[in-house]
Design goal:
Belongs to the 'GDXG' lipolytic enzyme family. 38% of the residues lie in helices and 13% in strands. The chain is α+β, with helices and mostly antiparallel strands. It folds into two domains: 34 residues, no CATH class; 69 residues, no CATH class.
């Protein structure tokens, strides 16, 4: 994980963060992170891409939110065959368009 761009960005954004990418400022599941039961919303969507290095972290986050006692709705969306930020890198693909539409629907209609 140390060579992943997210790790490098975390060092740039907060170079003195203890634990680097596993600092609670970046990782809501890190030791010392606030309880997920206090999320200030009624729903969350966790978007995952099959080939993304962070897919397992996203799944763990969704599971921990559900186990936390938070009373909202957790929606998990996993897109097969794609990598991190695929919908930003090439937003014209069918999978990217579908994800963007799903996000827009989630935000505007509560999906």
């Amino acid at each position: 994980m140390k060579q992943h761009i997210a790790y490098k960005l975390s060092l740039f954004a907060y170079p003195s963060a203890a634990g680097g990418i596993d600092n609670p400022s970046f990782n809501p599941l890190a030791d010392g992170a606030p309880s997920l039961s206090g999320l200030g919303c009624s729903k969350i969507i966790v978007n995952l891409a099959e080939k993304d290095d962070f897919t397992s972290r996203g799944l763990a986050y969704a599971e921990e939110v559900q186990k936390s006692g938070w009373e909202g709705k957790v929606e998990v969306v996993e897109v097969e065959g794609e990598g991190h930020c695929f919908h930003i890198i090439d937003p014209e693909t069918e999978k990217a368009k579908n994800l963007i539409k799903r996000l827009a629907s989630f935000i505007s209609h509560g999906h």
